[in-house]
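Bit of a strange request maybe. I'm writing a small parser for structure token strings and I need a real example to test against, not something I typed by hand. Could someone generate the tokens for this chain?
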Amino acid sequence: MEHYGSFVDAGRTIAAVSTPPGVGALAVIRLSGRNAIDIVARSFRGRSLHHVPSRSVSFGRVEALQGQILDEVVVTVFREPHSYTGEDVVEVSCHGSPYIINSLLSLYIGEGAQPAGPGEFTMRAFLHGKMDLSQAEAVADLIAAETQAAHRLAMQQLRGGIRDAIGELRSELLHFLSLIELELDFSEEDVEFADREALDALLVRICLHIDQLLSGFQLGNAVRRGIQTVIAGKPNVGKSTLLNALLGEERALVSELPGTTRDTVEDQLNIGGILFHFVDTAGIRETSDQIEQMGVARTREKIRLADILLYVLDGSICPASEAIGELSALSRGVGKTIAIANKVDLSGGQPDPGMVVSLPDDVEWLACSARSGQGLESLRQRLYEIAAGSAEAASMPYAINARHLHALEASKQALLQAQQLLQSQASTDLVAQSIRHAAFALGSITGAIHTEEVLGNIFSSFCIGK
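Reply from user aminoacidic:
Good idea to test on real output. This should exercise your parser:
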């Protein structure tokens, strides 16, 4: 990726604290750039850093300009290009005192380093070809991962999952594009290099692959941010009691009076390494109370955004047809709906037979008692199974952020346009333009967006002079 080199000031060495702020046992100050080793070596009292091999660790002391010993440190040297950024990198491990950290950072800045901007080390890694854009994004996701599932998804992307998927599609497009470009170069000779039927079949196949990548956008986002699980239902069916029972604490107010919950109550729970964001909502009913009306409106909005809907019913009685109709309507726009037959402790541990019969065929149900704890473990297990299936599916390459989503949609639109142009026997240059736009959009995901790749493809496949 030498063409990115102009974006990096080769003479600028950056420095920053790489560990979280606050007091800790240890901290790490990282420097990257041409003068990183020299800047640290000036105040380091130990073996000469100028002559140590790459990836070596040296123990010594750091002296301030007045000869004051600031700290005993461990210095690790990574020589370019075998470093995170592709430049000379030095990491100084010191004690975690804020005074020591600030003094060392000020010392290195005084010696010529400049404060690093947000994400600048990873940006330099990308610009020096150490990773592509999707991998750079995965670094941030990995740092932010709170659960095993989110960690697995970030690692899959960091190891090049989406890069490989996109790269394969893009290289096939570029191959055909190079053939079409050849036709344009030799247009006077009326030679056809690109088989039109094969190209049309390729466009169809790539569109299908893009659809697969797009289908996981919502799924990947759910795994990364946590599974949005909304608890809804009519007033006084035990929604808040269910939330408290799942969390194992009194998080929501509980009362026998209908309409106690007027706003959403939210909390999160880790089940088997997967993060669930639970939302307890206001009971859905017709009311003249303006505050309660606002709560019901917010409930419907939360349901619209849910990954899983837990629709709570009083399982000790046969529910009203209104509640069943509402359940059917709400479940249509949600990824997964489970009807919770609550309060079965009032009916001998089993839900009312009329309730089971009245449920829609496509809605799964579970019996439980939030008050006694019956069925709660089964509910947790079922939630885990649903989310674990999502997490396993999300280990496949998917568009996991809005940038990927928009790029894939733009690429698909250009490919569909190319198909239409082929079928209408439009001019070759128009077909080439649409394919070029599709390849550009795909390349923007990984950062490989330059037309020099097309030229390289042509020259590596054909001898132009023949």
